[in-house]
């Protein structure tokens, strides 16, 4: 159902809960014209950037390439090129003047995707090369990629996946036996309450807004949103997103949980929503905000997507699931360098499972 919208305003301190284990998303170091990162189970990705040396730019940059490798011994290895593939049916991939791959261009998010042994052959050329060019069937330049830093980025992936010194490494090859990390995807148990439609009335949100620390940051027409998140016995709860400032392409909001007890004279009460890891826009230990927030009422997942600039080639994004008491991080991605890489790197992932309703009813 659509959100209930109120014109009001606010902000207050968002607290994390110390009782929950804190997710630790991976880092994304930059190696000259490449960035690389891994998630918590060891899946890694390296992404090319627009060259930044002495302010240089490629006029014929059409989009980045990404090199993806999963962590296991039966790893999935892919090379993807992101660009507008319309008008082309085939490509040639050339490294330092040598043809290293060719094939069809397809419709979809990844017009070029090279997998398996073919991808490893291309990666070997990338590691040793200086420039990569993707051309169309008539030698049109689709994109031109600097390979400065690619070797260091892939060496970083070797190290993070425990491949350094083994035959499975891309850069740091050796004769040691590969022992993959045995890390499972975290599973979050979700206690979803019975569906309900009750949400706070406008007056309750106005009172909340008037008592906020972010009151001065609200200007123009603002929209506060309230969504029902269920009931148990005589208790109703709602997610409240309070507008807390905006820019050209980022709209901030502060999340609260409203609670109402049937027949209680106190009416709705509000507390800052709890997160096992605060959204990155505010950062740990500060007053976090959701950016360009969206809510999936059916799955009870909440997302934050903050762009570093309007092009969307940098920023951070998180997705959370409501577990019945707090928001738990289920995936996070980021790109710190604003240098043309629309492919953000995943640095955390988890899965969730809904608690059996019969079991929840016995609580």
Quick overview of this protein structure:
With 363 residues, the chain is mainly beta. It contains 4 helices and 23 strands.
Tell me what the structure shows.
It is a single chain. The protein has helices spanning 116-128, 150-160, 202-210, 357-361; strands spanning 4-6, 30-31, 34-38, 44-48, 65-69, 77-81, 90-95, 98-104, 112-115, 131-135, 141-146, 187-190, 224-232, 235-246, 251-261, 269-272, 290-291, 294-296, 301-307, 315-322, 327-335, 345-349, 351-354. By secondary structure, it is mainly beta. The chain has two domains: 4-22 and 187-361, no CATH class; 30-160, Invasion associated locus B (IalB) protein (Immunoglobulin-like, Sandwich), CATH 2.60.40.1880. The radius of gyration is 24 Å and the shape is elongated. The two termini are 28 Å apart. Residues 4-18 have low confidence and may be disordered.
């Amino acid at each position: 159902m659509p959100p209930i919208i109120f014109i009001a305003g606010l902000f207050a301190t968002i607290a994390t809960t110390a009782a929950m284990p804190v997710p630790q998303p991976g880092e994304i170091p930059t190696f000259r014209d490449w960035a690389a990162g891994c998630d918590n189970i060891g899946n890694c990705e390296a992404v090319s950037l627009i060259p930044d040396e002495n302010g240089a730019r490629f006029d014929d940059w059409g989009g980045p390439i990404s090199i993806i490798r999963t962590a296991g011994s039966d790893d999935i290895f892919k090379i993807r090129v992101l660009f507008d593939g319309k008008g082309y049916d085939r490509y040639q991939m050339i490294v330092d003047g040598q043809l290293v791959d060719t094939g069809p261009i397809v419709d979809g998010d990844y017009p070029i995707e090279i997998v398996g042994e073919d991808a490893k052959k291309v990666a070997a050329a990338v590691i040793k090369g200086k420039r990569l060019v993707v051309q169309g069937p008539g030698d049109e330049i689709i994109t031109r990629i600097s390979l400065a830093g690619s070797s260091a980025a892939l060496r970083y992936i070797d190290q993070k996946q425990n491949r350094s010194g083994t035959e499975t490494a891309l850069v740091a090859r050796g004769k040691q036996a590969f022992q993959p990390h045995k890390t499972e995807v975290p599973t979050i148990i979700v206690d979803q309450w019975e569906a309900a439609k009750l949400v706070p009335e406008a007056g309750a949100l106005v009172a909340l807004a008037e008592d906020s620390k972010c009151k001065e940051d609200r200007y123009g027409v603002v929209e506060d949103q309230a969504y029902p998140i269920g009931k148990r016995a005589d208790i109703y709860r709602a997610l409240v997103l309070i507008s807390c400032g905006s820019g050209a392409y980022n709209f901030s909001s502060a999340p609260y949980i409203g609670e109402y007890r049937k027949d209680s004279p106190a009416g709705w009460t509000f507390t800052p929503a709890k997160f096992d890891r605060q959204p990155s826009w505010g950062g740990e230990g500060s007053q976090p905000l959701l950016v360009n927030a969206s809510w999936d009422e059916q799955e009870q997942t909440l997302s934050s997507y903050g762009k570093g600039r309007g092009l969307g080639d940098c920023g951070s994004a998180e997705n959370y699931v409501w577990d019945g008491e707090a928001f738990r991080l289920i995936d996070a991605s980021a790109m710190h360098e604003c240098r043309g890489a629309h492919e953000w790197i995943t640095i955390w992932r988890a899965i969730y499972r809904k608690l059996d309703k019969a079991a929840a009813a016995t609580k």
